Amino acid sequence: MLSKIIPELGHFALILALLMALVQAVVPMAGTLTRRPLWMAFAKPLASGQFLFLAIAYLCLTTSFLLDDFSVAYVANNSNSMLPWYYKTTAVWGSHEGSVLLWSLMLGGWGFAVSQCSSQLPRDMVARVLSVMGMVCVGFLLFVLITSNPFERLLPNMPQDGADLNPLLQDFGLVIHPPMLYMGYVGFSVVFAFAIAGLIGGRLDAAWTRWARPWTNLAWAFLTVGIALGSWWAYYELGWGGWWFWDPVENASLLPWLAGTALIHSLAVTEKRGSFKSWTLLLAITTFSLSLLGTFLVRSGVLTSVHAFANDPARGTFILVLLGLTVGLSLLVFALRAPRVSHSIGFTWLSRDALLLVNNILLVIMTVTVLLGTVYPLLLDALGLGKISVGPPYFNALFVPLTGLLCVFMGLGPSSRWKQMSGRELFKRLLGAGIASVVIAAVAPLVYGGQWNLWVSLGLVMALWIVLSLGRDLFDKVRNASSLGIGLRRLSPAYWGMVVGHLGLAVTIVGVTMVSNYNIERNVRLAPGESVEVAGYTFAMQGLRERRGPNFIADTATIDVSRNGEHRFTMQPEKRLYLARGMPMTDVALRPGLLRDLYVALGEDLGDGSWALRIQFKPFVRWLWLGALLMAAGGMLAVVDKRYRRVKRRAQQPVTSDTSGFKEAQA
Amino acid sequence: MNPKRKQRLMVLLGLATLAAIAVGLVLYSLSSNINLFFSPEQIVKGEAPLEQQIRAGGMVKEGSVQRDKESLDVSFVVTDYASDVEVRYSGILPDLFREGQGVVVVGKLENNKILRAGQVLAKHDENYMPPEVAEAMQGKMPTETLE
Both B11 and B65 in a single domain? Predict the structure, then answer.
């Protein structure tokens, strides 16, 4: 009988978590204001408790899915008794209510992680950070409980079977894409909390940046992986072979990523040089606000997209209010407190400080252009000025040249010095890399494609410039060591993180350049026995047969692929019909490779035995996601740098006085 | 002016210039890359421009889908139950394209009756109706298919 009340237990756990979050938001903060250590000490156990109850609520929902409890509305709408068990566990985040629950669980998880890793942080800092995270959590749990309760029942008229999970979401890529993305989104709440706590406490010294940096890197790495997975999923699941559509939902995830990238670099300057403090704080606030904006865009149903499953206006309004409160209050705190923490430190125009400033300006401009293109149609619509949509040409026209400019400075950055350096020295160091990248990039299209192509050369120049200048910097750093091994080992993980991250961007740029310029797509009509040649490969349709899956039936085509008359392999694209929803789906046949993908999708049955097929040759497409994974690896690598742990230990000393931080920052 | 102030001034001036350039570029790109949405009724009345890329949407009329025997050319009628527009397209239609259901097409008008589409978008699941289409249909067909 206990299994009957699982949803109620989950609901109850959710309410308990909300109450704990409320206390966590208020009491520790009050403790720092009235200097009561006992009140401040509330923060850590509450963060753990809140996480525990959120986990219980989440497990209850998962259990309801596994037990096929269709009296729960959310389960009935997103599951089916025929659905395989693994998709039942992932269907939890297949739609709106479960997604926000997962989101809240992760928020609780990040809070818990901060409370566990904070033993070396001053007590008042921990109290403030966890308090701010508690406030965010209160907002989200209220949102879940008031507008999107996943435990709502369909009693007494419960359906016999569920409506099934959207077939688009029955896929491995989707199993991991949303959790990664949410980890990133929500992870930025930590640096946001650190920023607000730092502002309130007036403490923004080098130690503060060393606490905030690993969390920022980690969140950014998750977001990077999440975005890459989304792009990969769209590539093979939607059946068009596109990897980025400038869809508003994609933009919504790109916005915090761009701002977060700027934040990572700005934090580096704040740590090393003590400058850019207000700017860093502002970026931290912006990044988290953009994460919230992304949630609003995706969850409010204002967008036409696969993600727009919630069409309840109350939800949109609630998130908009939440967003307004977050932005408004944090900017208020910023305006009141920022003048106390900032002080300027000079630098010349040729220095790493200046180059990173340029990096930040460019990234912010990119953020603004993407934001404008995404929000402009919504604004016009809201003002009743007509329905428009902004197409990919807009984004490409602005984003691509800005990326190019960014790459020029990315090459200079790692080789430059802090504060000031002579232009001649920089020129001397990087001249070789510059010449080499231009020469190689000019020749490469001739070798690969047989004829010269300006766009390919430009794209490759950017990538090569990043790689070769990094290589030169690496060479300079190990040149004086007694052996190469010792020299390499002496470099810090943070440095390696930077190298790997920048390399990742270069790899992605190569992928984008090659696949955009050498992609071959043919839409053809094929009957069994016919064949077509695309990019040197011959695709011969052998036949079609029907196949039954666990919850679908499929038409499977067998296509023999040969090259130069030699049979290479067989591809089997499918057209599936998911039974519960009666929804057709394309299942693409892929032949992946490091240098090229072959991509075959079944279009539609044309009636006379022939089918429409979409056949594509996609060179270097894997590099897109490989690069993103490298970037994320770079971010993670920087987190393990020893100095973050060492400094935490050192920072333990000023714990004795709660006001010391404030004086320190004013000095 | 001390050097620090001078530097700050330079930063501000640089920022302002960059921002101005960026805003200019953004507005220019926006003006040439926005696609306005029109309902079939507006198109037939001649309210939609001919040379420009537009978006149109409505229901695919029952029985109107016609495939070419040799190629991938296809034509169908999009209706808002007030007016009809014929859409011509070459290529593969999305999985969820079906007669009697909502669709959004992106393309250029050949005249006020025929639209040549470069892109056809169908909804992502059966409960979903593109908001523009829902609005374009409003009040025109109070039958059981519109919930």
Answer: no
- Asked whether residue A592 falls in the same domain as residue A646, the answer is no
Contact by Cβ (8 Å): A529, A544: no
Phi first, then psi, for residue A547 (nearest 5°) are -140, 145
CB–CB contact A388 B34 (8 Å): yes
Radius of gyration of chain A (CA): 27
Q: What is the pLDDT of residue A466?
A: 94
pLDDT(A667) > 70: no
Neighbour-count burial for A104-139, b at 16+ CB within 10 Å, e otherwise: bbbbbbbbbbbbeebebbbbbbbbbbbbbbbbbbbb
- pLDDT one-digit tens code per residue, A415-467: 888 887 888 888 888 888 999 999 999 999 998 888 888 999 999 999 999 99
Q: Which amino acid is at A435?
A: I
pLDDT computed for residue A632 by the predictor: 96
Does B103 lie in the same domain as B81? Answer: yes
- Both A648 and A578 in a single domain? no
Contact yes or no for B124 and A388 at CB 8 A? no
Do B41 and B89 lie in a common domain?
A: yes
Q: Considering only CB atoms, which chain A residues are within 8 Å of B93? A: 603-604
- Nearest residue, CB atoms, B30 vs list A166, A376, A612: A376
Percent of chain A with pLDDT over 70: 93
Average pLDDT of chain A is: 86
Domain that holds residue A71: 2-335+639-666
Question: How many contacts, defined by CB atoms under 8 Å, are there between A and B?
Answer: 106
* Distance in Å, alpha carbon of B91 to nearest chain A alpha carbon: 6
Domain that holds residue B10: 1-34
pLDDT at B113 over 50: yes
**Which is nearest to B53 in space by CA: B97, B129, B110?**
B110
* Phi, psi at A585, each rounded to 5°: -145, 145
Cα separation of A105 and A111, whole Å? 10
**Identity of the residue in B34, B72, B131 whose CB atom sits nearest the CB atom of A390:** B34
pTM of the model: 0.88
B26/A346 CB distance under 8 A: no
- Cα separation, A437 vs A457, in Å, equals 10
Number of domains in chain B: 2
* Nearest CA-CA distance, residue B124 and chain A, Å: 6
* Complex-level ipTM: 0.74
Q: What is the mean pLDDT of residues A269-276?
A: 85
- The per-residue pLDDT for range A509-533, each reduced to its tens digit, is 999 999 999 999 888 888 888 899 9
Q: Which of chain B's residues have a Cβ under 8 Å away from the Cβ of A372? A: 26, 30
Q: What is the pLDDT of residues B6-33, one digit of tens each?
A: 777 777 888 788 778 877 777 777 777 7
Over residues B138-146, mean pLDDT: 45
Whether B135 and B38 have beta carbons less than 8 Å apart is answered as no
Cβ within 8 Å, pair B30-A387: no
For residues B52 and B97, membership in a common domain is answered with yes
Would the CB atoms of A387 and B34 count as touching at under 8 Å? no
Percentages helix, strand, coil for chain A (3-state, rounded to 5) are 65, 10, 20
pLDDT at B145 over 50: no
Look up the CATH number of the domain holding residue B129: 2.40.50.140
Q: Is the pLDDT at A166 greater than 60, yes or no?
A: yes
What would the 3-class secondary structure string for A552-604 be?
A: EEEEEEEEEEEECCEEEEEECCEEEEECCCCEEEEECEEECCCCEEEEEEEEE
Average confidence score pLDDT of chain B: 78
Show residues of chain B in contact with A606, CB under 8 Å: 67
**Average pLDDT in the B97-122 region?**
85
